[in-house]
Inverse folding.
């Protein structure tokens, strides 16, 4: 099995070039084959773990970046930074009206400061690039004052720069199985840019390059599936080689993520998140122990594994903060597994699809992380899932086990476990009751620290919950709705 987790030591030190990061990260006993695995990853920093800070404003991200670095998170996905239509809903940011950077998430200066701060902390900024389309409203004034019409944006695009697909009654995509509709008709009625035109390619390139000039490391390509791959490729090829590209391609219909990753780019693996939902929500967790499940996914090296994102937490196709225990256990499982580049998700509570906590002038409020019980958030409270101790501890587990392969799968009703080589073991119990059977970990006897449920701080060896591995390598039982994560690196006695 191929997997691409790179190494992470203390402190979140980002390294700007793959060559340097390789030499800095490879332990002395690393052989060349394994070096090859690392080299395949387009991410150049020490860990591959990222976080989507959905609708966090630039000032709040700035303040968070050092903590992300200390936790071991190496990249942050922001919401789209360009000027957008006015309105209260969060999704206004997905309707560009210019490529200026004053938006409900902050000013140009705040964006620049965020990128600088994150870069200094060693966290790469991945900006959400909305380049398939512009807006859907017939006309209006943008957040920063730009006067626009649906097919006319000053200094950028005019009618001829947009598709006019004439394949459906309202020019909108109606059949996702029809490639021509998916690419050339309007997604949700959003005016659809013609990326085949030199002018359009030029403007998009200019915009992306302007973000790179500010220190952005790469892009999420929003609605990548709705652009012709060769045309999108022409745009991306005009950017520097080291740019990190992550495609949003929701599988289904005529086009699949695999069609977008053939040049070393990454794509989100929606199947991973959906399966995690199916396994955890229905209690069929042992299905996850089927080693062949990844055979249906994107290759690990080119994929982003995740548990939830802003669309899927709304359409409920994945777990979300609404099922905090399952979300937490699934996130822990993702960090214990070796698939893809794991992306954490951090969001706010809402009771209405459109809602985002706004302050004056339609600007998004500063983030204040809400402490307290995980199952009683009020709408508008920021949940900050990436700060949960179980998650930060499991990041450490993932570093401590680095490239140890998953082996010795354990499966039983609502029970899923596996070893990480001969160095560690992970087990999760979704039952409403404890599981009392003996489980073989393959580890030497000793008292181990349970990463999942200890107060274990990121770099300390404090340990409040211990697990005894008997002389024959077994542990006995696991409590209800919890996980055990142990490794030889945290043995208490
Ligand atoms: C809003 C309103 C709409 C209105 C529109 C225009 O909600 O009612 O028609 O404005 O006025 C986001 C929001 C949308 C919002 C949009 C524009 O989610 O609600 O619309 O911004 O402001 C497909 C695409 C995929 C896309 C999803 C949403 O393939 O790329 O639809 N995801 C990205 C982002 C979204 C964002 C956009 C794209 C637009 O992550 O947050 O929309 O920039 C099957 C298909 C998928 C399809 C999926 C839809 O699975 O296979 O291809 O995804 O169904 O659920
Ligand atoms: Ca399109």
């Amino acid at each position: 099995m191929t997997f691409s987790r790179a190494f992470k030591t203390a402190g979140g030190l980002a390294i700007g070039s793959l060559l340097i990061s390789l030499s800095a990260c490879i332990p002395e006993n690393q052989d060349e084959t394994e070096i090859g695995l690392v080299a395949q990853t387009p991410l150049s920093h020490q860990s591959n773990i990222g976080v989507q800070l959905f609708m966090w404003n630039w000032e709040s991200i700035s303040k968070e970046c050092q903590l992300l670095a200390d936790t071991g998170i190496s990249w942050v996905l922001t919401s789209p930074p360009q000027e957008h239509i006015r309105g209260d809903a969060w999704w206004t940011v997905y309707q560009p009206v210019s490529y200026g950077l004053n938006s409900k998430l902050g000013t140009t200066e705040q964006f620049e400061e965020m990128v600088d701060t994150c870069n200094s902390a060693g966290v790469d900024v991945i900006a959400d690039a909305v380049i398939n389309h512009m807006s859907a409203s017939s006309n209006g004034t943008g957040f920063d004052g730009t006067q626009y019409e649906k097919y006319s944006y000053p200094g950028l695009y005019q009618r001829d720069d947009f598709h006019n697909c004439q394949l459906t009654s309202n020019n909108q995509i109606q059949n996702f199985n029809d490639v021509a509709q998916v690419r050339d008709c309007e997604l949700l009625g959003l005016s659809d840019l013609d990326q085949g035109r030199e002018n359009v390619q030029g403007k998009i390139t200019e915009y992306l390059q302007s973000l790179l000039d500010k220190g952005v490391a790469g892009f999420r390509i929003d609605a990548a599936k709705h652009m012709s791959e060769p045309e999108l490729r022409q745009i991306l090829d005009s950017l520097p080689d080291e740019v990190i590209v992550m495609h949003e391609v929701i599988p289904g219909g005529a086009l699949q993520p695999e069609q977008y990753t053939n040049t070393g780019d990454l794509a989100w693996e929606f199947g991973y998140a959906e399966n995690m939902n199916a396994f955890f929500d229905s209690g069929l967790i042992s299905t996850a122990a089927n080693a062949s499940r990844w055979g249906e996914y994107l290759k690990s090296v080119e994929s982003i594994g995740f548990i939830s994102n802003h669309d899927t937490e709304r359409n409920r196709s994945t777990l979300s903060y609404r099922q905090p225990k399952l979300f937490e256990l699934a996130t822990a499982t993702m960090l214990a597994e070796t698939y893809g580049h794991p992306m954490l998700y951090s969001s706010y509570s809402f009771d209405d699809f459109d809602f985002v906590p706004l302050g004056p002038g339609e600007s998004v409020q500063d983030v204040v992380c809400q402490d307290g019980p995980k199952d009683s958030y009020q709408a508008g409270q920021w949940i900050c899932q990436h700060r949960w101790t179980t998650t930060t501890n499991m990041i450490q587990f993932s570093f401590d086990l680095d490239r140890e392969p998953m082996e010795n799968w354990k499966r039983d009703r609502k029970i899923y476990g596996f070893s990480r080589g001969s160095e560690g073991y992970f087990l999760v119990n979704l039952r409403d009751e404890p599981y009392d059977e003996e489980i073989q970990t393959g580890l030497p006897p000793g008292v181990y620290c349970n990463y999942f449920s200890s107060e274990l701080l990121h770099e300390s060896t404090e340990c409040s919950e211990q697990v005894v591995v008997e002389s024959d390598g077994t542990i006995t039982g696991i409590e209800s709705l919890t996980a055990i994560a142990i490794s030889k690196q945290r043995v208490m006695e």
